[in-house]
């Protein structure tokens, strides 16, 4: 494995192998598997779980890691091409990324979308420009439209809980948030549930539809795996018989890049906070999932988040295990 960028790029048997490896490494640790290996971690956007879980994963496998982030460890990085660097930034991305990559056996990169132009972000041109600068194996730790490490962990979480793949009902629900957030998690989570073969419903208010190419990609995955994908703004209908509700906030695609337009529209839906009445039509054992961080009382009520439905801590721990599997396949013996 030279890259880990998008579950859509992996055959089903390779995804299954990673999930099995993650479970095996949890039960039967291999503390010397990556002895002498180094993982470079470049964070151009903030993180808690991604940073900590990758560092823990490398340590548990016997390797090491180091973190570079403009906000915590170095002078500002300039990203614009053709710029005269007479401002605050002392380093250009064209030198910084290859140097950072050269210090490790693989590199993880996290860089959010600019959220100014939807087509530009969907092209992943910014992230592609970064990975074009390196020749070592690399891992997408979240880009404009992808978060494969979260996706693999979520898949494992549902497997752990025996949530059905084919026939399982998965609701991806928009939730209120005071800020316009990226599309990476909802877009890639939708694909993951569809690829798993689930009956997926995107629950969202008008104006927060996911982009057509995202829906088309998910529907194609569902067709090949025996699942389905639909969307609605009817909460009772969406939650009927649901096994899982996965809450996430995202930007309005109708007002993408228009902060004021987005803010005005989202403030009409401040009541989209997942609470126990949402589960009236769901299965008794319907689970609540979220990638974290999550705003209590805004995205989800405390009784749901702290109650037996919530599996968010289980999900978060699976980030480490899923990433251990990826690192083992990328840097382990024989690679």
Number of helices: 12
Task: Please report the first level of CATH classification, the CATH class of the largest domain.
Answer: Alpha Beta
Class from helix and strand fractions:
alpha/beta
Tell me the major beta sheet. Answer: 5 strands, parallel
Q: Looking at CATH, which topology of the largest domain would you report? A: Rossmann fold
CATH architecture of the largest domain: 3-Layer(aba) Sandwich
Please indicate the count of domains.
Answer: 2
CATH homologous superfamily (4th level) name of the largest domain: Aspartate/ornithine carbamoyltransferase
Beta content comes to 5-15%
Q: Can you list the strand order of the major beta sheet?
A: 1-7-6-2-3
User: How do the SSEs run, as a string of H and E?
Assistant: EHEHEEEHEHHEHEHEHEHEHEHH
Radius of gyration of CA atoms, rounded to a whole number:
20 Å
What is the end-to-end distance? 8 Å
Helical residue percent band: 25-40%
Write down how many β-strands occur, each being a DSSP E stretch of 2 or more residues: 12
């Amino acid at each position: 494995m030279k890259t880990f960028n998008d579950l859509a790029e992996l055959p089903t048997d390779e995804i299954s192998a990673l999930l099995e490896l993650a479970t095996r490494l949890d039960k039967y640790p291999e503390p010397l598997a990556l002895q002498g290996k180094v993982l470079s971690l470049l964070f151009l956007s903030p993180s808690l779980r991604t940073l900590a879980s990758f560092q823990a994963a490398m340590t548990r496998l016997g390797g090491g890691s180091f973190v570079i982030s403009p906000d915590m460890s170095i002078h500002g990085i300039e990203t614009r091409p053709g710029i005269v660097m007479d401002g605050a930034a002392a380093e250009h991305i064209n030198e910084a990324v290859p140097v950072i990559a050269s210090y490790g056996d693989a590199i993880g990169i996290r860089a959010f979308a600019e959220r100014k132009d939807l087509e530009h972000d969907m092209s992943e041109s910014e992230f592609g420009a970064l990975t074009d600068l390196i020749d070592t194996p690399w891992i997408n730790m979240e880009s404009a439209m992808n978060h494969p490490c979260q996706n693999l962990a979520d898949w494992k979480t549902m497997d752990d809980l025996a949530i059905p793949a084919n026939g399982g009902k998965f609701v991806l629900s928009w939730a209120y948030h005071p800020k316009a957030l990226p599309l990476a998690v909802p877009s890639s989570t939708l694909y993951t549930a569809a690829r798993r073969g689930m009956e997926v419903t995107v629950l969202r208010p008008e104006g927060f539809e996911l982009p057509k190419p995202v829906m088309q990609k998910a529907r194609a995955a569902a067709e090949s795996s025996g699942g389905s994908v639909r969307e609605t703004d009817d909460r009772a209908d969406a939650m009927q018989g649901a096994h899982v509700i996965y809450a996430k906030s995202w930007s309005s695609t109708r007002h993408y890049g228009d902060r004021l337009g987005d803010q005005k529209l989202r403030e009409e839906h401040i009541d989209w906070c997942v609470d126990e009445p949402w589960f009236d039509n769901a299965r008794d054992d319907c689970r609540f999932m979220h990638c974290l961080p999550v705003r209590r009382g805004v995205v989800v009520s405390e009784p749901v988040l702290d109650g037996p439905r919530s599996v968010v801590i289980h999900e978060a721990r699976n980030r480490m295990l899923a990433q251990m599997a990826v690192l083992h396949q990328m840097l382990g013996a024989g690679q």
